[in-house]
Amino acid sequence: MNTVSLFSGAMGLDLGIEKAGFEIKVCVEMDKWAVETIKANTNIPVIDRDINSVPTEEILSTAGLDKRDVTLVVGGPPCQAFSTAGKQRGLADFRGNVILQYLRVVSEIRPPYFILENVRGLMSAKLNQIPLEYEEYNSIKSIKGSVLQFITTEFKKIGYNISYALLDSANYGVPERRERMVVIGHLGDRVPIPSPTHSKEGGFNTKPWLTLRDAIGDLENREDLNYIPLRPQCLPYMKMLHEGQNWRNLPADIAREAMGKAYDLSGGKTGFLRRLKYDEPSPTLVTSPTMPATLLCHPTQLRPLAIEEYARIQQFPDNWQFKGRIETIYKQIGNAVPVGLGYAVGHQVMEYIYGRINMNEEAQNRIPYSRYKHTKDEEFSLLFESRKENKKGKNTVMDNLINKVEGYVRDNISQFHEARINKLKKLKLEELLKKKNPYMYKAKNINAADQLVRGLASAFMSSAEETMFGDWLEGLAIFVAKEVYDGRKSSADGIDLEMDKDGCHYVISIKSGPKWSNSTSLKKQMENFRKAIKIYHTSGNKNVCLAIEGCCYGTEHSENDTRTKICGQEFWRFISGSDTLYTDIIEPMGTDAKIKNELYQKEYDAMITKFIVEFASKYCDENGCIEWDKILRINSGITYKKTK
């Protein structure tokens, strides 16, 4: 039965579909090395361009088919964000979204069946900017799961009956815990979700899960395997760990040393310094097996999983040739749908076509499709309806957020005042003299010791306070993002916050104000953004990852190829969803401000008095005149290191 494959990748889904009895007639794939892989293993014609530029007529003509000859369309379009910063760009991105392109091809061919595969994030992705042609969806805009609701509604409009669920690949004979969203469409009655054929213990007439040993046990001692070596910094610790262990099995002091900054992060962190276990299914294969947070180390060997083992776990044939550098091969396999999962869904459709299916099998199934609740169509629809109702109470929710934020500010603003006072207590006169420009003060005709000391101290503390308050605002922004979008403090260098919003992952650097950088620091920040995005994608995440430079005050907004800069009200709205939070937080910041500033002023005056006395004794002559040459020697003179 003739099948069109969109977003074919390395053909994991397609191999499963063909195993179920369908025949792939054409592939559409734009990744260079995935295209080479398809060509190396099949004679199937490939259209190697962005699907946005591929007319449906070209797909059919390349396949040598009339649209009436097509039985099935399959594909796994990446789950892109349906919104970005800026209204016009958001609308353009909406219309160019690849899931919409999948919808376009299906609506123009109208095959009896389609299968759409995607990541779990599709069930939480939100619509934001909506073009006029889809204005009927404005009522569900910004609701979690509105993208899935939109897609399924659009398919139903053109006559398809839809079934969908999040499926754990291990439940379908794959030696891997990999969960994927699968949507089945039929121009007719609803096709039931395939029942699991496997389960952890093998109950309810299912077989036990396949394990890592089943998949790769015979490859353990082969010397011709291809892999990226483990990172040198993790080798000493991996030598201490045995099969099935991770960093938690190290001695406490060594564990902290091994984990570094990640030690204090929240969450289970089970992917750090992880050796896999032979007698369990593999965890989800990511696009690089050596990333710190998602390490896939062989159970017994001092190396990560090899690409040959990756292929076995994803159930590619041993003779399947992957093209490209080893990094791109890991990526192709890590992004693929396991062949066994593709087969299970394809087999279900084939059985339905031939009338060999039990239409009551969903009601009779006793094995959960995945470990997550509300991820089957009927359950999700009820959940989404409740979210719509909850949206009506959004103002109440936002009021609750503002109350929490105000409470946080009142409870924590004292940290800023304490930091100011601690800075004063630790400050030394020579530190002041070294930090500021003495030429400027001479040029301003400042000749009295008290004038100079007060000027230096004022300039120094003003700069220090900007940094201290910026650090405090960073904590406030992280608190807000955590409350609204379950954001978290990032462990990546130069990144303060990470969060997921509207189906997109954001890496965010928080700045006090917009004028924080010079060319060197800006260049470093761009490098940090690129590294953070790379780490996110090489950890097996398919969602779009965007970098945000967020400034707590200001009105500047700009964009380059690496990041989007948003300031003031726009930034606070971005992390909270509230248009007024940026003004709501100002009042509680004055909590006990008068008392705190009186304490600070007392310490400040005492410091000034002490520094004036010290300055007069060290840097003034017997007539009370400032000896500028002495100041310049400690401020600008050449210093020599003593040699032994």
CATH class of the largest domain: Alpha Beta
Q: Count of helical segments?
A: 23
Structure class: alpha/beta
What is the average per-residue confidence, as pLDDT, rounded to a whole number? 89
How many separate domains make up the residues?
3
What portion of residues belong to β-strands? 5-15%
Query: What is the C-alpha radius of gyration, as a whole number of Å?
Result: 30 Å
List the strand order in the largest sheet.
3-2-1-4-5-7-6
Query: Which topology of the largest domain does CATH recognise?
Result: Rossmann fold
- Poorly predicted ranges: 83-92
Which key features would you list for this structure?
644 residues, alpha/beta, Rossmann fold, DNA Methylase, Chain A, domain 2, Restriction Endonuclease, 7-stranded mixed sheet, 6-stranded mixed sheet, 11% strand
Can you tell me about this structure?
This protein has helices spanning 12-19, 32-41, 56-63, 87-95, 98-109, 146-157, 212-216, 235-238, 252-259, 307-313, 326-335, 339-353, 361-364, 377-392, 394-426, 429-435, 438-443, 449-485, 519-538, 569-576, 581-584, 593-619, 628-636, and strands spanning 2-6, 23-28, 46-47, 72-75, 113-118, 161-168, 179-186, 198-199, 207-208, 488-489, 497-501, 504-511, 544-551, 558-559, 563-567. With 644 residues, the protein is α/β, with parallel strands linked by helices. The protein has 3 domains: 2-210 and 336-392, Rossmann fold; 212-328, DNA Methylase, Chain A, domain 2 (Alpha-Beta Complex); 395-590, Restriction Endonuclease, CATH 3.40.91. The strands form 3 sheets. It has a 7-stranded mixed β-sheet with strand order 3-2-1-4-5-7-6, sandwiched between helices. Strand 14 and strand 15 form a beta hairpin. Helix 15 (394-426) runs parallel beside helix 22 (593-619) and helix 18 runs antiparallel to helix 22. The radius of gyration is 30 Å and the shape is elongated. It starts with a strand and ends in an 8-residue tail after the last helix.
